[in-house]
């Protein structure tokens, strides 16, 4: 098996079987020569496919600093980080974490027990441990929890020449050098300039003359989803993080935002599917069932309520049994329409598009959409039932039911997430199964309510 990697703009191939053979034959020189030329992502992919014995050999062959680059690219399940660290010598693991970017090290440590975190921080490099401790204090899913403190900052009262000198010295430790941030004597953020600005301007020009002083930044307590929207809107590679007094605390880079977007998308999809967590695939059926059961049990009781609701119209069904034929049609159309409106509303809230519009305009637009869909389907169903069953009034009854049901279902699908968003509740919890079941109940009430009201026309 061969894996493709990028090296100096050319395509190269790595024989991973050869690497495995060198690894297990303890041919350290050959293994290191080929392995260290691989991209860190390819290293991590290769590492993840190894058994425990192979991984232990890798720890022996690589220094903690070399292992840090691999670990930053390791896409493992949350519990796997704990297992892999447990295979390492504690001092080796602590040195590796010290050599990782602080935000990546924090992501790993957040998956460990508190006593394990304390243990690693105790034996870790003092400076690295301090940076990591500072980041661990921030609330999860906020800008502070995903920012890095490895950035380049300069003063406004210095020249481009001196700034480039600082940049060259700080670059090896910085996570990004595409933006250079300008701070005052109290470390307040006062400007920003790009690497290009430094390169194209004369060495003797003052930073204050070329910096951009209208800096877009985020608060340290800002929700990570909002940060992702800002970076998308402004097409930033990185964005500075400040406190309430505008002191520069760190930066968030685009690679962290990609992880956030994937995490948020997975979280929203989990809720829309009525599942507690889809971040990982559960190999244990008991664990998987435990995550899915809560919503399903709620929906089970709602389904029983729907069944009892139909039972209340037993007399109507006894008199006109053919009404039962159209129950799946009415309920199915209501569920489908409501889910469509829900998907539009949740996506709009997630992307921030709905923030730019008046909410009443959104509701009015969805009501109009439901009206057009309802009247189209209602008229169509009326004639289909008439030609199928030969009963015009039955067709009109089903058509009117479809018409009203689709308007109500569309409004429910759009209003519920908007209301939840207004109440600061994640709108994704208004999941597809939940909206479908609610619309089933509404559609049954509308359908049998109309049928009961006009029973004389059906039996006459």
From TrEMBL:
SUPFAM superfamilies: CBS-domain pair (SSF54631), MgtE membrane domain-like (SSF161093), MgtE N-terminal domain-like (SSF158791). It is found in: Cell membrane; Membrane. GO terms for cellular component: plasma membrane. It comes from the Bacteria. Its main location: membrane. It is a multi-pass membrane protein. GO terms for molecular function: magnesium ion transmembrane transporter activity; metal ion binding. It holds the Pfam family MgtE_N. The chain crosses the membrane at residues 293-313, 319-346, 367-388, 394-420. The keyword Magnesium applies. Residues 147-209, 211-269 form the CBS domain. InterPro entries: CBS_dom, CBS_dom_sf, Mg_transptr_MgtE_intracell_dom, MgtE_N_sf, MgtE_transporter, SLC41_membr_dom, SLC41_membr_dom_sf. Keywords: CBS domain, Cell membrane, Magnesium, Membrane, Metal-binding, Transmembrane, Transmembrane helix, Transport. NCBIfam families: mgtE. Acts as a magnesium transporter. Belongs to the SLC41A transporter family. Homodimer. This is Magnesium transporter MgtE. It comes from Mesobacillus campisalis.
